[in-house]
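Final report, closing paragraph on structural work. Over the funding period we assembled a curated collection of sequence-structure pairs, and we close with a single example.
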Amino acid sequence: MSQGHHIIPQRVLLGVFGSLIVLTGVTYGLAQINLGVLEVPVALAIASTKAVLVVMYFMALKYDNPVNTLTFAVGVIFVGIFITFTLFDTAFRGDIGNVSEQTVREIQREEEELQRRQEALTPEQLRVAPADFENAEPDPEAGTGADADRGGSSGGS
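Its predicted structure, as stored:
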């Protein structure tokens, strides 16, 4: 039950209004600055502060039944939890493909081994396309196959 209508002094209401104006200015000012990963948490903290001021003074929750304050606080806590999980979800989205049973060192060792193997390859081993064989010296054991019928020209531009 409510304890009756509480009249809030005009000076308090003007102070809260001034605080809201200042916080709005701070929000605008911080929007002009690149805070990196802190942008969202700072913006949410300022918005939460403004919401608490409005609810406590303009909606007079401060002077209402404590059960209503508890209900509001629990709601704010759950909203905070949901926002936190949402931010975790968006922050780590796409990283699920990076999960592996191997350790980072094992993966690095495999990459280094592949790099060493690639550097050890000879130019003969790297030939894979017909164009790779055009400037190569002809193999004397190879017969006059399809390459001879083309006249040695690639025909491409």
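Residues 17 and 54 are 9 Å apart (CA to CA). The chain is about 60% helix and 0% strand. We thank the funder for supporting this effort.
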